[in-house]
Amino acid sequence: MTRLILLNGAPGVGKSTLARRWANEHPGTLVCDIDLLRTWVGGWRESFVATGAAVRPAAQGLIGGYLASGDVVLPQLIANPTGLDSFASVALDAGAAFSHVVLRDPAGSVGERFRRRTGDDPWHEDVRRLVEEAGGDALLADYEQRLASLVVSRPSAVVVASVEGDEDGTYAALVAALG
């Protein structure tokens, strides 16, 4: 049975990095990165949030179609129950399993970690700007609280400590958590 693995967590906690590594070490796994998909839409920088909302149904279609062939890993912050349920339904409708993993920074320094994030992904600077405009650390703390509530309300959710600077250890914890 194939499965959809949602790597959920605050911005900068390592979702995309771990998703790529998972796919590299599990051939045939599709990484469906909604943030990357949004960059394929003209004008995405001018309407980052609206473009993300517009590409989610496309991502769900892609995921649903691909689950017939293999696993999908989805690195995406989904902090509301309705959004979470919509992706879980895509997996179940495709006859696949759904694994919800919440990545958490055990040091509790999500804001600092987010600001230190580097990489070549074209959306990082846009996300930094949007987070700052929407409240900065207060917004990140709100995401953390909402994710904690999701974990409580979804007993099947698995929490994995994402230790900054320890990709190997964090990946090993992810592999162990997913069996």
Uncertain segments: none
Looking at the overall shape, the CATH architecture is: 3-Layer(aba) Sandwich
Distance between the termini: 14 Å
Total number of distinct structural domains:
1
The fold-level CATH name is Rossmann fold
> What is the rounded Rg?
15 Å
Q: How many extended strands?
A: 5
Listing every helix as H and every strand as E from the N terminus to the C terminus, the arrangement reads: EHEHHEHEHHHEH
Question: What does this molecule look like?
Answer:
The chain is an alpha/beta fold and about 180 residues long. It has one domain (about 5-170): Rossmann fold (3-Layer(aba) Sandwich). It is built from 8 helices and 5 strands; from the N terminus they run βαβααβαβαααβα. The radius of gyration is 15 Å and the shape is globular.
Features:
single chain, 179 residues, alpha/beta, Rossmann fold, 5-stranded parallel sheet, P-loop_NTPase, AAA family ATPase
Secondary structure: elements and pairs:
Blueprint: E1 3-9, H1 15-25, E2 30-31, H2 34-38, H3 48-66, E3 72-75, H4 81-93, E4 97-104, H5 110-116, H6 124-133, H7 137-153, E5 158-161, H8 167-178
